[in-house]
């Protein structure tokens, strides 16, 4: 059965957060979509939570599919989701992220009016303990995007034809595969920006080592996919590191002065 939208959530031992994620999808006032959960063989209560909502999706006539098996990382799991997806437009919602109320109906209206677009994204809130830490709210511009990932991937929808043309996620990447995938179209990427909030993503407190790895992967993607020269790519790498550490130091200074 064909549907307009496919929403894919990847999980691994997500018992503390995935229920809110599932509820945010289930409670949408729009039903022409399917929900797919690709679990990485969780050993906590994640699967019990997933199974609990299975009948509720079926009662609303929303196709609901889940699998649980080992994977080699998030992009391997996303690619599994892509193989299962039947929708014309595909979104990836993290197991600690939520859709805001009524946003799937909003996305559906936009995609039906922009069938030739590749990527439709919006404003997204980065949350830390119920407080807004950062807001992603940039319109896509190639000259900026080829140097910095400044748009929100969470909750955004991808035209399935984009994957058919440019391929699935490169599983050699472990952190920035979503960025690399969108770089493939270069300045021909056709985007639509929804000037409204559609999702909230949780700030998971990424370790310094993962931040460095993310910047390194971004450097590789810029050189190999975006055709950025090595000097510029390395400049971006060190500049991003500097900004990150200065920002961290500033936050620690403010916190210590308050305490």
Spans where pLDDT lies below 50 across 5 or more residues: none
**Shape type:** globular
CATH class: Alpha Beta
What is the end-to-end distance? 57 Å
CATH architecture: Alpha-Beta Complex
In which range does the helix fraction lie?
Answer: 40-55%
Please trace the helix and strand order, writing H or E for each element. Answer: EHEHEHEEHEEHEHHEHH
* Mean of all residue-level pLDDT scores: 92
> Main sheet, how many strands, which sense, barrel?
9 strands, mixed
Work out the radius of gyration: 18 Å
> How many DSSP-defined strands?
9
CATH topology-level name: Spore Coat Polysaccharide Biosynthesis Protein SpsA, Chain A
Number of helices: 9
Which superfamily, in CATH terms, is the homologous superfamily?
Spore Coat Polysaccharide Biosynthesis Protein SpsA, Chain A
Q: Can you tell me the number of structural domains? A: 1
Quote the beta fraction: 15-25%
Structural class from helices and strands? alpha/beta
Explain what the structure shows.
There is one protein chain. This protein is an alpha/beta fold and about 260 residues long. It has one domain: Alpha-Beta Complex (Spore Coat Polysaccharide Biosynthesis Protein SpsA, Chain A), CATH 3.90.550.10. The chain is built from 9 helices and 9 strands. Strands 1, 2, 3, 4, 5, 6, 7, 8 and 9 form a 9-stranded mixed sheet that branches. A hairpin with a 2-residue loop joins strand 6 and strand 7 (about 130-135). The longest helix has 29 residues, at about 230-259. The chain is globular.
